[in-house]
Write a structure and sequence with these properties.
CATH class: Mainly Alpha
Strand content: 5-15%
CATH architecture: Up-down Bundle
Order of helices and strands: HHEEEHHHEEH
Distance between the termini: 14 Å
Strand order of the largest sheet: 3-2-1-5-4
């Protein structure tokens, strides 16, 4: 039983194949492109705003529609209900996310150039963790914004969690929130790295068992 395990650990130290290196180099492109597209889009419609107000969250900034005018309107509405303004200060995670994506780009290129199977698995674990952590932080920030309402605000409403995915009615506003291009690009990268790691692991297990003379199950 120890022999297949020993062979498998040896496999983890092997350099990854040239095909895997080429795929990793291609997977850098979605990460690089993610800087140019929004991560998330939030839109609000009400009788007094029939055209709607829109807000795009990028990796490094928050941008309102109509050349930035919408974010001013949204923050004015937030003031009336006692909600903190939506800005870089409130979404402080936008300060580290560009660096995290840059780090993933560098680590992916390193793995493509000199990586072994173990480094590839580490890359898959790290990219999955960072993406899930960033998503959970976004959910937490939205929760805090909707629940830390000023009790002395002109309008009193029940604490709420802004729409995170889908459509939600808040007072007389219909709020829709959906992921956009950057989230899909980052998801494509993470999925690609994880699928490749799983394929390499299964292949390594089969090779280790075969070399040890054991039939894989």
């Amino acid at each position: 039983m120890r022999e297949p395990i020993h062979k498998f650990w040896e496999f983890l130290a092997r350099p990854i194949s040239m095909r895997a290196r080429a795929v990793l180099a291609l997977l850098v492109m979605p990460l690089a492109l993610s800087f140019g597209f929004p991560l998330w889009n939030i839109s609000m419609k009400a009788p007094q705003y029939p055209q709607g107000l829109t807000l795009d969250v990028y990796l490094y900034k928050v941008e309102g529609g109509n050349e930035g005018q919408h974010i001013q309107e949204i923050n004015t509405l937030n003031h009336y209900i006692g909600m903190a303004p939506i800005n870089r200060e409130q979404l402080s995670d936008l300060g580290w996310m560009p660096f995290a994506m840059g780090l993933l780009i560098l680590l992916t290129l390193r793995c493509a150039a000199i990586g072994d199977v173990r480094i590839l698995i580490d890359l898959a674990v790290l990219s999955t963790y960072l993406s899930l952590f960033a998503l959970s932080r976004f959910i937490y920030r939205m929760y805090v914004l909707g629940h830390n309402l000023d009790p002395h605000a002109p309008m009193k409403i029940e604490p709420f969690t802004p729409a995170l995915f889908g459509t939600k009615q808040i007072a007389n506003f219909t709020v829709s929130s959906y992921p956009r291009g950057a989230t899909l690009l980052i998801g494509a990268f993470v999925t690609g790295v994880c699928v490749m790691s799983l394929w390499v692991l299964l292949r390594g297990r089969s090779e280790a068992l075969r070399e040890a003379g054991t039939t894989p199950t």
